[in-house]
Amino acid sequence: MKLAILGPTQKFIGYTTKRLIAEAKNAGFNAKYIPLVSIQLRVDNGLGAFYEKTDMSKFDYVLPRIDSKRAIIGYPVIRFLDDLGVRKPYPAETIHIAHNKFLTLEQLVKHGIKVPETYLTGSKESAMKIIEKQKLPLMIKLLAGFGGKGVMVIESKEAAKSLIETMNTLKQEVLIEKFVPNPGEDIRGIVAGDEIIGSFKRIASPEEKRANIKAGGRGVAYKLTSEMEEICFKCAEAIKSRICAVDMIESKNGIHVIEVNINPGIQEIEKATNINVARNIMEFIQNEIKR
């Protein structure tokens, strides 16, 4: 079985991609790592996608590792692979949705999934009007960015004004999210097809409201409830991705989904749970090819 794993240039390959490559080889795949930027797309009397002398349409499966920095080139590559009939975890449309936090929330709401009350605006005046009507603290986020990056907790109107001014100068749209009171924990489930292949809980450090590991949180093993599992599957369906991570928080008003990630890192979850998530992903891909 021929598998292509797409990602950054060799210099920037991280833990997750290295683990996926290793487990692909352990599973018996004829696996090839391909830097996304090195793929050549061709139009003439038809369509073609190539890496060096390799025809991308000949792979049994392509596993993209496309982050927000590479979404611009990732979209046409995946769209070509869509047209060529190559199996993948998601279509090109998903890249546009998943790398825009607000479009992701929109899709979730359309599928009946509870999310925090959130506003999008590109105007600093409009942003300040929204903030004036809200109780503090608030979460202000960039449209793209994962792993706790681009997420700011605002505890005063003065801090909000300063941040909005900065984002306006940088020509950044603003996501304003109502803070959902919770114990300082978020819960992640990783979906692969019809299974949850790993889950854990991230607990915020005492001075933080963000539980993300990169924001100082710590991870512990956690088994999802049946309700959480159902939410994860609905999220995957909403963004049309067979593989994704779903981040949730619990509050007195129920479970809210705060993020869905089609390019999840697995280092923290493997460390916290001893679950071989990379191997589980490879087993899923094997089953997809055999279908």
Keywords:
single chain, 291 residues, alpha+beta, Rossmann fold, D-amino Acid Aminotransferase, Chain A, domain 1, Dna Ligase, domain 1, 3 domains, five-stranded antiparallel β-sheet, four-stranded antiparallel β-sheet
Give the secondary structure arrangement, pairings included.
Blueprint: E1 2-7, H1 15-26, E2 30-35, E3 40-43, E4 47-51, E5 54-55, E6 61-64, H2 71-83, H3 92-98, H4 101-110, E7 118-121, H5 124-132, E8 138-141, E9 151-154, H6 157-169, E10 174-178, E11 185-192, E12 195-203, E13 218-221, H7 226-239, E14 243-251, E15 254-261, H8 267-273, H9 277-290
Helix pairs in contact: 1-9, 2-3, 4-7, 5-6
* Helix and strand sequence: EHEEEEEHHHEHEEHEEEEHEEHH
CATH fold-type name of the largest domain: D-amino Acid Aminotransferase, Chain A, domain 1
- Assigned CATH architecture of the largest domain: 2-Layer Sandwich
The poorly predicted ranges are none
Proportion of residues in β-strands:
25-35%
Structural class by SSE content: alpha+beta
Count of individual beta strands: 15
**Biggest sheet: strands, sense, closure?**
5 strands, antiparallel
Instruction: State the separation between the terminal residues, measured CA to CA.
Output: 13 Å
Provide the number of structural domains: 3
Shape: globular
Main β-sheet, spatial strand arrangement: 13-12-11-14-15
Tally of helical segments: 9
CATH homologous superfamily identity of the largest domain:
ATP-grasp fold, B domain
**C-alpha-based Rg, rounded:** 20 Å
CATH class of the largest domain: Alpha Beta
